[in-house]
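_Per-residue structure_
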Amino acid sequence: MSARNSGRATKWSSALTGAALVVAALTATVSPAEAASPAGTGKYVALGDSYAAGAGIPASSAGLCLRSDHDYGHLVAAALAPSSYVDRSCAGAKVGALTTPQKDVGIVVNDPQLDAVTPDTSLVTLTIGGDDLGTSDLGFGDLAVTCIALSLTDPFGAPCRAFYGNTLNDRLDSASAQLAEALRKLRAKAPKARVVIVGYPSVLPDDPKKCLGKMPVTTGDLAFLRSVLGRLNEKVTETATAAGATYVDTLGPTKGHDSCSSDPWIEGLLPASPTLPLHPNATGERVMADAVLNALGH
């Protein structure tokens, strides 16, 4: 080897050695605790309303929150085996319950749900917004009750649609704005967390005639209620996307198993399985959990 080539080889050897030392030093300074955990392997926090809580499905805890140990959060946690799991979902939760205490007849039933989110949180799931449609804690059920009562005034029309007018659009806009702000606060509390917003399932069929004899609401108002659910999911999707969160569709996976079907995963006004009216039963919660797991690539 010539002296010139020998010199070049020595320089390259020194450079490679130096690079290796730099890489080793950088590796030594990054501890496992400082590295971002894959979604679900660190702390997992489940938030939301009765659809997230699996309200009414045995066994329930947390008092009036009716938090089930078979809600989709528990099922997702069982599959992911995170380092810790916290469920703060609560029946009757409106978007405001994410940042302020949830009360019932003046009594606090649940602390602000975002209080459970900490910097080490790696996954958050959330279903919320449906309760903001109604004036009571029944949420969407509040609309159904109103539509049932109004059906007697105009059996062949859409009296419920006429009654609400643009009110529901205004409520959706307000809830979306509150949700966007809550998601900003969530991101500030847990900047490394994967945030998954889970949409609402197929409570009513696309064809309102399938509910004839099963739900005492006019055909016109059944179509109206179905459109409200569609707009709710659209608003939630838009807000989730704008916030950089992952939206999980549960409407598609539950189609054909709505509250008026012969094999319901969302129960009707008189539930045949333990759950609240117009809410997912245990099978429905399992399907919602599977949708979340699929979105996480599990």
Q: What stands out?
A: The radius of gyration is 25 Å. The CA atoms of residues 71 and 292 lie 12 Å apart. Strands lie at 43-48, 60-61, 67-68, 84-87, 102-104, 107-110, 121-127, 194-198, 246-248. Residues 1-36 have pLDDT under 50 and may be disordered.
